[in-house]
Amino acid sequence: MPLYLRGTLELASQGVDSISSQRLADYLGLNPWLIRKDFSYFGDLGKRGVGYDSQTLVCRIKKVLRLDVTRSAVLVGVGRLGSALLEYGGFSRYGLQIVAAFDRDRTRVGGTIGGVRVEHVDGLGTVKTRSIDLGIIAVPQESAQEVVNTIVQAGVRGILSFSPRHIVTPRRVKVISIDIAMDLARLPYYLSGNRKQ
Amino acid sequence: MPLYLRGTLELASQGVDSISSQRLADYLGLNPWLIRKDFSYFGDLGKRGVGYDSQTLVCRIKKVLRLDVTRSAVLVGVGRLGSALLEYGGFSRYGLQIVAAFDRDRTRVGGTIGGVRVEHVDGLGTVKTRSIDLGIIAVPQESAQEVVNTIVQAGVRGILSFSPRHIVTPRRVKVISIDIAMDLARLPYYLSGNRKQ
């Protein structure tokens, strides 16, 4: 579903008003049959031979993914990666917004990156009063668990973690991990043939 | 399999010599039955009630994933994200090494980050003579496809892309995309109950 949303958003931004499952499938490199099956969940939305109205489709998928309301996120760790995230404009199209950023390094605290002022981690508990649902963890891996504990206590219920270390949370808190090294490590498997090493 | 490798490496680094499927399952939050099934591929490797020798297991999984030889990667785009990747030490445990980095910004060219000298993108074709299998794309999305075309022509056969835009490659070239915004957008679906918005 998130992938369908991305594809639909991109096609819509290219001026495509009506999206057929075939077209979306071609664009995303997927099987159109799979897309039709998944979209059948929406009921009678697409027109046979024409496709789905792209704006309606975006709304429906967003609703399924609960992206139909704006969600606020807190970022912890404003190193190179964290700064890149703050400057990255791509979250807004999913209705996501980083509204607070924290770091332990006092030389970073007080600065503003991507329109967000960096606060000191000692104030992380204030997240509780700010209606923040999501947390992004970009701290060194030895601090990750401690930071997670703090923001979970402050009411964060979904976490995106860049720490390669396994993170423990209460069952009600969902963690999605991005382990860049592991993703890169998946590639050699697909290398066909052999080069001289 | 990559996840098993990460878990095994972490447990081994904690001094665990013998890893049972149950222990690995607990560590990774998976079903031990699934792990036993996948590991049955290795044949008679584990000892009943004892588990797998962690070093042997690491070697076997690396072999399956073709990580048993060192792989070289080229990084294109040395902005905040690219710099973070160059400084990140986590690739080596998978036998991966970023050996070259390119950027179009002349103020960055010539500098050294994480031990790698930044070269100008005009020289990207030289990748061909350097036995580089993998490419990491951390350039602005409007340049991503062009950069991919160049490194594919230079012999790169696996690409890790941070561009949210869909990338086209010949079938023989595998692309793994990391779309951070999309990963964050997966979280709201799991938020149970409702907060005041």
Question: Taking all residues together, what is the mean pLDDT of chain A?
Answer: 88
Give the number of DSSP strands of chain A: 9
End-to-end CA span of chain A: 40 Å
Please tally the helical runs of chain A, counting DSSP H or I stretches of 4 or more residues.
7
Assembly level: homodimer
Summarize the largest interface: chains and residue counts.
Answer: A-B, 65 and 64 residues
Amount of beta strand of chain A: 15-25%
Radius of gyration of chain A: 20 Å
Overall outline of chain A: elongated
Low-pLDDT sequence parts of chain A: none
User: Helical amount among residues of chain A, as a percent range?
Assistant: 25-40%
Order of helices and strands of chain A: HEHHEHEHEEEEHEEH
What structural keywords apply?
homodimer; 197 residues; alpha/beta; seven-stranded mixed β-sheet; two-stranded antiparallel ribbon; 7 helices; 9 strands
How would you concisely characterize the structure shown here?
Two copies of one chain form a homodimer. Chain A is an alpha/beta fold and 197 residues long. Chain A has seven helices and nine strands; from the N terminus they run αβααβαβαββββαββα.
